[in-house]
Amino acid sequence: MPDPTSVPPPPAPKASSAVPMSQKTFFGIGMLANQLFPAAMAVFLVVLVQSLGMKPWMAGVLAFLPRVLDAVTDPVMGYITDNTKSRWGRRKPYIFLGAIIAGVSFALMWQLDADRSVMYNFWYYLIFALLFYVGLTIFATPYVAMGYEMSSDFHERTRLMAVAQWIGQWAWVIAPWFWIIIYDPAFFPDPVTGESNGVHGARMLAIYVGAGCILLGIAPAIFCRTQPVDPATQDRLSFTGIAGSLTSLAKGIAEAFKNAPFVRICVATFLIFGSFNTVAGMAYFIILHHMFAGDTGPDGAGRWPAWHGSVGALATTFLAIPVVTIMSQKLGKRTAFVISQSISVFGYLLFWWCFNPDNPWMLFIPLPLFCFGIGGLFTIMMSMTADVCDLDELRTGSRSEGVFGAVYWWMVKLGFAAAGLLTGVIMSAVGFDPDFESQTTEAMTGLRLAYVLLPIAGTLLAIFIMLGYDLTEKRSRGIRDEIAERKRSAGTGETL
After folding, report:
1. Whole-number Cα distances in Å, 55 to 51, 60, 122, 162, 276
2. What pLDDT was estimated at residue 2?
């Protein structure tokens, strides 16, 4: 006999399918912080090799180990944020705190000392890099999950991610100029010599970058609205229940990997983003040593590496993201993914001829094609992951955006970690030596081949994998309708 004193929980408010532009913008501001950290890191890492005398393999290890920790902690953080109960919701407290930890530790991480030994700087950097990536996990995992639950509409999710990626791409427009700022004594002259070998510039600029990312990162925690969740669907987080929590976490991760469309998304992202990042840092050395014979002056490489990065990011911002968003709505997400990645393959191929010492302006020819790779990747994949969360809810009865977001970014960061290690391995294997002002022809040919062939291979394999992705708009709408009907029958209303 039912208990007459029990009161069923009130229906949770239905999430609006349309996201106001103000909410999209505040979410996108958080993406700018999320992108500026890795964009700045890619530039700052040059200082380790160019100014502190670290071998490429050492820089590779420093790029690899912290990101392994980052990848391991992401699913744990996803489980924690999914099951947090607080007056501020399950996302905002972590976004706020994580942004502060990541920003402060980023600034500390680059307070390196050129007068100390290479090994001292190696261990100093490693310790603070580990702390930085813990802070980044605390910030990024709930931040990404927040985006997945902001809309239930198939195409609105793509528009939300397009706005966020558009704003976030400005990190990659700005960051290439950090190299100029770091090494130009007009910005941060060494207090002793008045010149700059990059170390003092990195120390000072890191403080500004860290502070700026804190302000950007806390914006979504303050201004973005989050969706309520039924506490009955959440686990209890406590030290005494840690064993059960870990079991539930393991089950959540296992469920995520049973989701075939999600596995395809993860593997394709790993291949494209991993291969892109493996060769991304090589562009600086190819431009400097192949195109300008090691000359860093105004008549040599000068600002060409910065222009290469900025123009590529601008093409992504104003060309790739808008075009991919339109293609996604007109042709479907899978088709838009295949087309955008195929375009990027031709861009990578052109770089073989366009890293041209006789005509440096050819460097810009591949960029409008090359930019469709990363520009199309995250705009579509983050939208697809939100659709996958609906499929998981249909199967399990609960929503786990945090776990799915964490596992997805776990694959991204695993690719990032592997890329950092592989970059050092490839540069050493082809004979690149930072102690030499002039690099051998064989070393430059090896770097150019890697820059062209590795991302092409990764992209083609990713396209092949995504051909089997079957979560279409029609199927996704059917899933949403089935979830809504199930909740109406249970008398709980529809939630995200």
Report:
1. 11, 9, 11, 39, 22
2. 40
Distance (Å, rounded) from C-alpha 487 to C-alpha 496? 11
- 91: its two tokens: 């996302």
Alpha helices in 149-241 (DSSP H): 154-168, 170-174, 176-183, 199-223
* Spatial distance between the Cα atoms of 35 and 39, rounded to a whole number of angstroms: 6
Q: What is the CA radius of gyration of the chain?
A: 23
Cα distances (angstroms) measured from residue 392 to each of 166, 302, 458: 28, 51, 28
CB 92 within 8 A of CB 85: no
Side chain identity at residue 417, one-letter code: A
Q: Which residues contact 69 (CB under 8 A, 6 or more apart)?
A: 130, 133, 134
If one counts every other C-beta atom within 10 angstroms of the C-beta of residue 85, the result is 11
Distance (Å, whole) CA 357 – CA 262: 43
Separation of alpha carbons 57 and 63, rounded Å: 10
Q: Give the Cα separation of 262 and 367 in Å (integer).
A: 30
Confidence grade of residue 424 (pLDDT, cut at 50, 70, 90): confident
Which residue bears the tokens 């994998």? 465
**Residue 17: how many other CB atoms lie within 10 Å:** 15
- Burial letters 281-308, b for 16+ CB under 10 A, else e: bbbbbbbbbbbbeeeeeeeebbebbbbb
**Angle 177-181-184 (CA atoms, 0-180°, nearest 5)?**
130
pLDDT tens digits for 251-304? 767 777 888 899 999 999 999 988 998 898 788 889 988 999 888 777 777 788
What value, to the nearest 5°, has the Cα angle with vertex 438 and ends 434 and 444? 80
Retrieve residue 118's tokens. 């290479």
Measuring CA to CA, how many Å separate 2 from each of 6, 270, 307, 392, 489?
A: 8, 51, 71, 31, 18
Who wins on pLDDT, 6 or 155? 155
Over range 343-360, report the average pLDDT: 96
CA distance 391 to 262: 10
- Which amino acid is residue 367, in one-letter code? L
Residue-wise pLDDT for 148-174, tens only, equals 888 878 788 888 888 998 999 899 889
Q: Is the pLDDT of residue 15 over 50?
A: no
- pLDDT for 14: 45
Give the Cα separation of 3 and 372 in Å (integer).
59
The one-character DSSP state at 240 is T
Given the structure tokens 């996302």, which residue do they identify? Answer: 91
Amino acid sitting at position 294: G
Give φ, ψ of 226 to 5 degrees: -115, 160
